[in-house]
Amino acid sequence: MKLTLCGSIAFYDQMLEIKEKLEQQGHEVKLPPTEIKDENGKMIPVKEYYQKRKAEINNNSWVWIRMSEAMKNHLNKVEWSDAILVTNFEKNNISGYIGANTLLEMGLAFHLDKKIFLLKHIPEISYKEEILGMKPTVINEDLGKIN
Length: 147
Known about the structure:
Number of strands: 7
Order of helices and strands: EHEEEHHEHEHE
Distance between the termini: 7 Å
Structural class: alpha/beta
């Protein structure tokens, strides 16, 4: 199965581990980018970009241009896939965190009739009903349930 992993860049290390396990099971897996261009066009690690983005206060900064590019790129990966796996670990004291970008990716997958898998439970957040409406399959960290 062709899978795209979705989730916060804060979970990137976990995504790499999950990608390897899924590939061992015979899946073809795509991730968010590992590198992003900085303000000078030089490639920097995605984690470094994430730190710069979190610290940015200028609404016209290069970080938002790069974010737009990364979002479109990842939405193309969702379109390519048969299904998405949302890596919803704990973040910001929210168990099973699903952020705004991930919700957008889930919405696209839903619209395109792709399967949506959640690694962990649906979080207690203000948009829980929207997530429930997309009918995701919660796999409780059992990657063997992806089919």
